[in-house]
# Entry
Amino acid sequence: PPPPPPPPVHSYAVSGAKIERRHTLTGHELGVTAVAVAADVAVAASAALDSRIRVWNLDTGSLNLEIDCGPMSYGVALSPDGATVAAGSMGGISLWDAASGSKTASLSIGSDRIVLCAAISADGALLAAGAEDGGVHVFEMEAPYQRVAKMEAHAVAVRCVAFSRDGKTVLSGSEDSRAVLWEAASGRQLYTLQGHGSWVLGAAFSADGSHVVTCSSDQTVRNWDLTTGASVQTLADSHSDQAWGVAFDPSGGRFCSVGDDRAIRVFEATVAGGE
# Structure
């Protein structure tokens, strides 16, 4: 019998503790490796092993555009206005016009290692990329796309990167079980967050930048106070399989996580104290 189709991408509406599926987005021929949502408009992008990036209208659930991005497209990011798609590949990141599908730039990390994750700051000015060799790279998002910082604190692959809302700090999560907080403009290391027992796969900042949430293949979700670097909340029973992604709501009062158990969990955020 033919193999089953790959799982689709789903979009959801969240209201308080209620999660309601809005759209099922189909079309990728192989497994989806990353999804990104624009901060200011109802647009999402998905990258998959079929070497395609699909740009979606989240209001209607319709496909805006399909981009043939070549082999090994992994991490994907969207500019806040949804106009630019960034996708990691071997040796760097490609930027694409989300309206026309044309490639607008190629950003090199200076090696042939694969870029596994990417993020664009909330003002659209900076892009961060994490590579399989443990490097974290920050680029300007205007020509000539200068690399402004290269950070090296991980000896193994970086699996997630995230910007604080003000764009001043970057967090990287790695297969070394650590998350590291950096000053984006200089690459200066600020904190190392230790506590996960396996790969750190996802990270998200609260809107005020005071906290960051991380998730891991150890099946836990942690909430960290960035004024102290301490973990203030550990959700050890959040998933029955590895947890891949996290997000804060704009108010900072809640965050959610998604895992390989196909569950989405919504949590009340602890904003003070310690474990």
